[in-house]
Amino acid sequence: MKVLWIFAHPEPRSLNGALRDEGIRTLTELGHDHRQSDLYAMNWNPVVTGADFAHEPADRLVVGSASRQALENQTLSPDIRLEQEKIDWADAVIVHFPLWWYGMPAILKGWFDRVFVKGFGYGVSSPGPDRRTLRYGEGRLAGKRAMLITSAGSGEPALGPRGVNGDIGELLFPIQHGTLWYAGLSVLPPLVVYGADRFSETAYDNARTDLRERLRTLPTAAPIPFRRQNHGDYEDLVLRPELAPGRSGLRIHQTN
């Protein structure tokens, strides 16, 4: 496989840095090709501006239409085009970050804001007269795999179904379902490292073993069974009443 590893942590000597290094070694041992986007090391700019799209400052900036036009005209800024080329190259994308304030670090959010432009990550339509919107399992990035690796200071029970911090699957829903699956990538269950602020050598050995196994099964592991928008489960973008009857919330958008 060809694997793109997106890394968003400011300290290469951190726990996450050590796991990233172990992951890259493992991919090499397994015979996979790999590339990296180490966002802090790259000094990645996370802020969307008109300069991303060669936009004339005197004109009102409409980000969606400006980004689509720049994508089609190949006038996106070079740093964005390079990241898109990496994604096009990859069969699988690893998104690796610490969980900060219930979400991604700002630099990683800005990577998605700038790279997943209209016509690339969203705003994709099927050919023909019906012009069906392709998202949630379809789209330009369909056929690729993605997996999150994240660390949390809390222990696992506090991020469980009844934990005070909320269920980890629901906390990661915006990126797993609302970003990756939305753009068409099949999303594997995440690798979550709990209690990262109090890690022992034994805990690290266990995390390293888990990471190696997850990378070994990267080509074959079953993805999270998110529902597809255009396969009959939704009517007017609302889940059909006979599916998950009497239930609501994020979990109804999975088939189990």
Automatic annotation (TrEMBL):
One Gene Ontology cellular component term attached to this UniProt record is: cytosol
Instruction: Tell me which UniProt keywords the record has, alphabetically.
Output: Oxidoreductase
Which Pfam families does UniProt cross-reference here? Flavodoxin_2 (PF02525)
EC nos = 1.6.99.-
For this protein, the record's InterPro entries field holds: Flavodoxin_fold, Flavoprotein-like_sf, NAD(P)H_dehydrogenase_qn
Q: Which ranges carry the Flavodoxin-like fold domain?
A: 1-215
Instruction: Quote the protein name from its UniProt record.
Output: General stress protein 14
Q: Which organism is it from?
A: Actinoalloteichus hoggarensis
Gene name of this polypeptide: ywrO
